[in-house]
Amino acid sequence: MTIKVLSDTALVIEVAAAPGPTTLRKVRQVAQFLSRDPELGAQEVVPGLNAVALHLRPESDVFRARERLEEVLGVGSKRVTGRLSSRRRVLPVVYGGEAGPDLASMAARLGLTEREVIKRHAKVTYQVSALGFAPGFPYLSGLDPVLACPRRETPRLRVPAGSVGIGGTQTGVYPQELPGGWNLIGRTAQRLFDPDAAEPSWLQVGDRVRFKPVTALPTADSDPVRAPTVPGEATSSSGGRLEVLAGGVQTLVQDLGRPGFQSMGVAEGGALNSRALAVANLLVGNPAGAPGLEWALKGPVLRFSEASLVAITGAEVAGRPVGLPFPVQAGEVLDLSKLPRGGRGYLAVAGGIDVPLKLGSASTQVAAGFGGFQGRELRTGDWLATGSGPVPEVRTGWSLASGLRGLPRETLTEIRVLPGPEAAGFGPAAWTEFLAAEYRLSPDSNRMGFRLEGPKVTPLAADEMVSQPVALGTVQIPPSGQPLVLMADRQSLGGYPRFAGVISADIPVLASVPLGGEVRFVAVDLAEAQEARHRAAGIWVYGPVTSTDSSAMTVIDLNCDVGEGGGREIS
Questions:
Q1: Separation in Å, CA 193 to CA 27, 74, 94, 135, 181
Q2: For a designed S-S bond to 505, which of 139, 274, 464, 532 qualifies (C-beta 3.0 to 4.6 A apart)?
């Protein structure tokens, strides 16, 4: 086994060079073994097709974790054993027609009849090799080699939930309506992912699956994912309410995310600029991880039913302070749409935004349609509930250090990176050129990934790569050669080379860069990355920071080592 650094909070254990039944068994044993080891500081363990990712808690020591892995997974180690459970699942599928629009063309391409494709696809018992790409999406191994078929040249923007597809040498099922490039041959009504279920993912790694051809799907639950949502009321709350007069652009309820479910294909999610949201919450007396609002480019317009205290970070809003709490009165309209420079902004409200928790978090997973407010962006006519409790007093005579307001930088932004697991496959010259280049943040960027425009990065050899575990900040190189940085709503497995990794402390910095903004990457070593992570944790780990009343201006610097007494005061 080979241990590689994925980021300063994630390590990868490559179990074998290629996937297969023996590899899958060993991957499952390693994942099971590591999940039970309290000395690793693991936040979660994610099995892949031929590798296992170990994601560490923010306070963990990556060097100690690597030493521990070397100790228990060393050459000749016989400690990684154990019995593995495996369930059997049957999926009724309607093949062809509207349910399988690619069946006819795929059959013609393979020189088979549609009936032969169906027979070959349904006679095999598959095994779930991994869950990734989307919540509950199964990568199923065991496909008849005769049915292997390349992905579509142009992916569909919308693949219906329950669609059964073939991509390369694997078959899989889309749990939600998603974009995708697999060849669609059928559809099932079985719901594969439900965040409210005791077991959110209907399939687990190692399960054995059979497809059963049927002539029609059940009509009682024709949508295996969710019913369409409409502008709606807030959940019941003893606090106030916010009326959405205008939704803004991509305005979402977010907190600090839901770690612990990547093995089901569920991204951590949460605020892209976690630092900005945490600081905004601290300014109004909330816990750092309380739910707030995030928007991109243009914020919402809100009417408050009750008096409250709010704070804005991340973006400048005309006529409102940034990085300082300020009161709003009952009936007052807060217009967050007038941004002089645009940008990704955050609003914290005293008491937080009151929405149901899904898998322990209030963050919105738009692609999967759950979390936040009805699993979607805010729209005109929505009502949001806010938490209850006394409104904190506004203290004066102090200001927030400018670097903590989360505002975009006026000049080129430097982002620190570590080399990725596949960096050697590009050669030293490519790494040097990457660090010397300036990249522009593409308008095609989103919460899943930031696309960069600039000099291409080209591998020494264009080898096909097995989908591998990825992490927040992983810099992938797709065939275009333009770097792609994976962000909060990323998938848990990816098939592009992992060239670099943005260090965890600089993810909020990258998140603050506006579309069209320029960045340059700076190489650091793992020790520097970990030190930066531990320093940055001082921003939000210890809760609200108070200031002393003083006629002199005081800067509250949260970006330092803090104790129970709060942040360091700098006159």
A1: 23, 36, 20, 7, 20
A2: 532
- Does the pLDDT value for residue 343 go beyond 60? yes
Instruction: Look at residues 571, 562, 570 and name the one whose alpha carbon lies nearest to residue 282.
Output: 562
Give the rounded percent of residues in the chain with a pLDDT score beyond 90.
Answer: 69
Name the CATH topology of 413-535: Cyclophilin (2.40.100)
Alpha-carbon distance 316 to 245, whole Å?
20
- Distance, in Å, from the CA atom of 188 to the CA atom of 161, rounded to the nearest integer, reads 8
| Sheet hosting strand 10-14, strand order edge to edge | 2-7, 10-14, 51-56, 42-47
| Residue 1, CA distances (Å) to 347, 428, 469 in order | 46, 25, 15
Which residue is it, tokens 């697999």? 182
Q: What is the DSSP letter of 7?
A: E
311-312-314 Cα angle (round to 5) = 145
180 to 92, 150, 159, 209, 474: CA distances (angstroms): 22, 13, 6, 22, 21
**What pLDDT band is residue 77 in, cutting at 50, 70 and 90?**
low
Write the burial class of residue 549 (CB in 10 Å: 0-12 exposed, 13-18 middle, 19+ buried).
exposed
Residue range 245-265: average pLDDT? 95
Count of Cβ atoms closer than 10 Å to residue 446 Cβ: 16
Residue that has been written with the tokens 């349904």 in this structure: 122
Conformation bin of residue 511: beta by default, left when phi > 0, alpha when psi is -120 to 50: alpha
Residue-level pLDDT at 296:
93
Residues 491, 137: Cα–Cα separation, whole Å: 10
d(C-alpha 109, C-alpha 224), whole Å = 30
Least confident piece of the model among 80-84, 191-195, 520-524: 80-84
CATH superfamily of 88-213: Cyclophilin-like (2.40.100.10)
Structure tokens at 401: 């250090």
CATH topology of domain 2-72: Gyrase A; domain 2 (3.30.1360)
Give the sign of the dihedral formed by CA 428, CA 516, CA 529, CA 293.
Answer: negative
413-535 and 88-213 share a CATH fold: yes
Q: What is the pTM of this model?
A: 0.88
Number of Cβ atoms within 10 Å of the Cβ of 417: 24
Exposure letters 216-251 (e unless 16+ CB within 10 A, then b): ebeeeeeebbbeeeeeeebeebebbbbbbbbbbebb
Per-residue pLDDT of 393-404, as tens digits, reads 776 666 676 677
Please give the single-letter amino acid code of residue 151. R
Phi and psi angles of residue 537, each rounded to the nearest 5 degrees, phi first? -60, -25
Domain boundaries, the chain: 2-72, 88-213, 241-397, 413-535
Q: Which residue has the tokens 């629009």?
A: 101
- Listed in sequence order, the residues at least 6 apart from 524 whose beta carbon sits closer than 8 Å to its beta carbon are 416, 417, 418, 503, 532
